[in-house]
TrEMBL record:
<dbReference type="InterPro" id="IPR029044">
    <property type="entry name" value="Nucleotide-diphossugar_trans"/>
</dbReference>
<keyword id="KW-0328">Glycosyltransferase</keyword>
<protein>
    <recommendedName>
        <fullName>Hexosyltransferase</fullName>
        <ecNumber>2.4.1.-</ecNumber>
    </recommendedName>
</protein>
<dbReference type="InterPro" id="IPR002495">
    <property type="entry name" value="Glyco_trans_8"/>
</dbReference>
<comment type="similarity">
    <text>Belongs to the glycosyltransferase 8 family.</text>
</comment>
<dbReference type="GO" id="GO:0047262">
    <property type="term" value="F:polygalacturonate 4-alpha-galacturonosyltransferase activity"/>
</dbReference>
<feature type="signal peptide">
    <location>
        <begin position="1"/>
        <end position="40"/>
    </location>
</feature>
<keyword id="KW-0961">Cell wall biogenesis/degradation</keyword>
<comment type="pathway">
    <text>Glycan metabolism; pectin biosynthesis.</text>
</comment>
<dbReference type="GO" id="GO:0071555">
    <property type="term" value="P:cell wall organization"/>
</dbReference>
<dbReference type="GO" id="GO:0000139">
    <property type="term" value="C:Golgi membrane"/>
</dbReference>
<keyword id="KW-0333">Golgi apparatus</keyword>
<dbReference type="InterPro" id="IPR029993">
    <property type="entry name" value="GAUT"/>
</dbReference>
<dbReference type="Pfam" id="PF01501">
    <property type="entry name" value="Glyco_transf_8"/>
</dbReference>
<keyword id="KW-0808">Transferase</keyword>
<keyword id="KW-0732">Signal</keyword>
Amino acid sequence: MAGGRAFRPSAPRRAAFAALLTLLLLASLSFLLSSGPASSRSSSSPSTPSARLAAVHRHAADHAAVLAAYAAHARKLKEASAAQSLSFSTLSSDLSALSTRLASHLSLPEDALKPLEKEARERIKFARALAAESKEGFDTQSKIQKLSDTVFAVGEQLARARRGGRMSSRIAAGSTPKSLHCLAMRLLEARLANPSAFADDPDPSPEFDDPSLYHYAVFSDNVLAVSVVVASAARAAADPSRHVFHVVTAPMYLPAFRVWFARRPPPLGVHVHILAYSDFAFLNATNSPVVRQIEAGKSDVALLDYLRFYLPDMFPTLRRVVLLEDDVVVQKDLAALWQVDLDGKVNGAVEMCFGGFRRYRKYLNFTQPIVQDRFNPGACAWAYGVNVFDLQAWRRDGCTELFHQYMEMKLRFQNEDGELWDPTSVLTAGLMTFYGNTKPLDKSWHVMGLGFNPSISPEAIRSAAVVHFDGNMKPWLDVALNQYKALWTKYVDTEMEFLTLCNFGL
């Protein structure tokens, strides 16, 4: 923003707007619940006049509330005309008065009630049509405001982390720090309340090191998102007991993950191995330039993001690992990924270039001679999200050592002669490390864009083994794209009582 300061509404106005959104949400929920099919209502409702009138009274009150909320929202956002605002207010007042009349006439004979009942039903029908006609516009404005608030909040947290000189964990695109922190704290409280129910360091299962099973790595501090990844993969698997998830998180979130999976054991016999990155002794400043940069105060380096470059060292007994991001949903059995022929290459991934887009020139600074000498600017970029890694080929080709060279090179050139690539991009580090060493996977394995693209074809989504909510509009946020959100929420364990307490946008 000009002048160096981002606009932020005053505290009273933000509080008022938050209260208004809450009112709108509650009123809309009441409206939706009261708008079920007429056949369902008529088949289950008592036929007595007083019961029918009581139901009409309740519907009128509900619709009066939702229209009052729309009237206030129209005035607040300055999007509706004065006539529309007046229409909402007038109809809301009429319905409120009608509701009062209904409440005071419940004892009248049926013949006297019929005209009043007919009037009420007609007004409710009109109110429902008016609300439905206006809902889309108001929802769009609400999403824009919530997205703005989310961007502002994440920006503020990033600024604070930079001022502090260190990031202890990643700031995930689209995450809700307050909700995640709330959930972690609630889970920790449950552990403190009953410490004997949760082991500090559970005994490892033999499946964790068995190379004949199907192993996944997930690096995340979002316990809710990880639970969806595990649940969706388990339900899609033909034999869930052969699937093993290695979940690595920050030490501060380790207790929360353990409590969650102790209270909600992995479904259908899948195995979940929960670790903190502090459990790996080799992750220190002597062995890792990533750790050195973090300890030197490089706030744009997040260790959880870069752990993927240490997979062979983290899991020395394994031959193949599938890396899944925490914002994916698995829709089909992934066992076949362990039979994909990588032609001796290290990485299997879905490419994302088309025409001249998403090629190496987008990610690397080709004005630098060292970049020009090593990479082709027209090479096709691939995506993280679903990646098959042959750990034996990785060890053979020394990919971790190559990654270290690029990290050291980046730091040297950053100090001397500008950037080689975007320092906040873990993808670019992967594009360089696995350049010429990546086998393209069929696109149906990994369909991307559900966190930003509203135009993905339903057929592409139906045929996808994994759908990826990459982008800022994560499915656990209020700003999620509604047409995709149910793909994620159907795997959420809604019986976990802490979710409603922590205000996730589910």
